[in-house]
User: Fold this.
Amino acid sequence: MSSFSVFRLATRAVRPSGLFRASQLPRTRVQTPAALAFGRPAFSTSMKLRSGQHDDETYEQFSARFEKEFDTVQDVFELQRNLNNCFAYDLVPSVEVLSSALRAARRVNDFPTAVRIFEGVKAKVENQDQYKQYLEALEGLRQELGVALREELYPGEE
Assistant:
């Protein structure tokens, strides 16, 4: 055994105490949270997920719900969170929902998100013809708000 190997073995046994892994901590040092120790419920800042809340929702109810949510958006975080929730479903949002989202993006002055709304639509539709129909339906609003498409901003990419 070389002297270097012996040195490695000797230093491996002596590690700083602040670098413990969770599996290396002795059970007596692991403490339970105070809320659990006293039988009180622990408070969380995150929202509880209710998976069955919108199971029986129709497309019209979905559209009305998201139109209302986009109409009340006050900051960029809310806008992007609502867009993530809206595009997470296995459907393409209606033109009314998209126009409400575009107006919300303009209200909070977030141009990049407005451009990405159209990118999201392009990713969600089944074919290029559906995307063109959405563009035609939203053309007036797009011109009014001054929102360019990614294809217009970067013509060489695809």
Q: What stands out?
A: Residues 128-145 form the longest helix (18 residues). The radius of gyration is 26 Å. Residues 59-153 form a domain with the Serine Threonine Protein Phosphatase 5, Tetratricopeptide repeat fold (CATH 1.25.40.40).
